[in-house]
Design goal:
Number of domains: 1
CATH superfamily: Vaccinia Virus protein VP39
Structural class: alpha/beta
Helix content: 40-55%
Strand content: 15-25%
Strand order of the largest sheet: 3-2-1-4-5-7-6
Number of strands: 7
Largest sheet: 7 strands, mixed
CATH topology: Rossmann fold
Radius of gyration: 19 Å
């Protein structure tokens, strides 16, 4: 499996998205449900935002966490001290687990980076027992991420490559209303429910907001690495102006909405 998410260092991902995925994880767990004694699979665990929140949320029997990125797997392993948790490298579209091995399979901010999201959902269904739960959540890049839209709209206003990047970013798989729900139904899940989850992303100042993107992390950071130094500086200055909005640099807070979907294995 290839992923459309770029990661250079776990610390950069933490500043870009890990701290916010930790804020989203409890809301997602409440939506997906959880019960003591269950065996849970975390698909695309990243640095462990969902994995370790699961361990705190219930007396689970077992948590298996997988990610395609060796950078993420190593970072999560270094954080882990819970004997119930096992973290390994694996492909979401070819999970290395037996049929019906888990009570629930969950994916936090993953499916939009999987080349064939439907195949990943099918694999999650395969490894969950009948009556168990498959659930996933992804950001609404087009209509629900005000801070990121501020960046990509600024980039788009400055050139054709920015407009092309915006089109790719806003319409990644699974991000449109009803899209995940249709995929869950197509893969044979029943009682499928879709909901919106909202958090706020709070930044100390512009550097806190921009640093991981400027360092090349994530989709927007990857785009920045394709530009020459002069264009990078032009974009950074324009985004800084948008962030500050005519006021002194300092704290800013942005609302962010994610689509969540849950289905039952028949």
């Amino acid at each position: 499996m290839t992923s459309t998410f770029t990661v250079h260092a776990a610390s950069g991902y933490e500043q870009l998205m890990g701290r916010w995925s930790r804020r989203l994880a409890p809301k997602f767990i409440d939506f997906a449900g959880l019960a003591g004694g269950e065996k849970i699979l975390d698909v695309g665990c990243g640095t462990g935002s969902l994995t370790f929140e699961l361990a705190r949320s219930a007396e689970l029997a077992e948590i298996q966490a997988i990610d395609f990125s060796p950078v993420f797997v190593e970072a999560a392993r270094q954080r882990n001290s819970d004997p119930r948790i096992t973290i390994g490298q694996a492909d979401a579209m070819a999970l290395p687990f037996a049929d019906h091995a888990f009570d629930r399979a969950l994916a936090l901010l993953v499916l939009h980076f999987v080349p064939e999201a439907g195949k990943a959902v099918a694999e999650m269904r395969r490894v969950v027992r009948p009556g168990g739960v498959v659930a996933a959540v992804v950001w609404d890049h087009y209509g629900g991420m005000t801070g990121m839209r501020m960046i990509i709209d600024t980039m788009a206003a400055l050139g054709e490559s920015g407009r092309q990047m915006r089109s790719r970013y806003c319409f990644q798989p699974m991000m449109q209303p009803g899209e995940m729900k249709r995929t869950f139904v197509e893969q044979g899940l029943v009682d499928v429910t879709e909901a919106e989850l909202m958090i706020r992303m709070d930044y100390a100042d512009f550097n806190d907001f921009w640093a991981p993107i400027g360092a090349g992390e994530g989709p927007l950071g990857r785009y920045m690495t394709t530009l020459d130094a002069a264009e990078q500086k032009r974009i950074e200055a324009a985004v800084r102006d948008a962030y500050q909005a005519g006021r002194p640099d300092g704290p800013r807070s942005f609302a962010n909405v994610a689509w969540a979907c849950r289905g039952i294995v028949p």
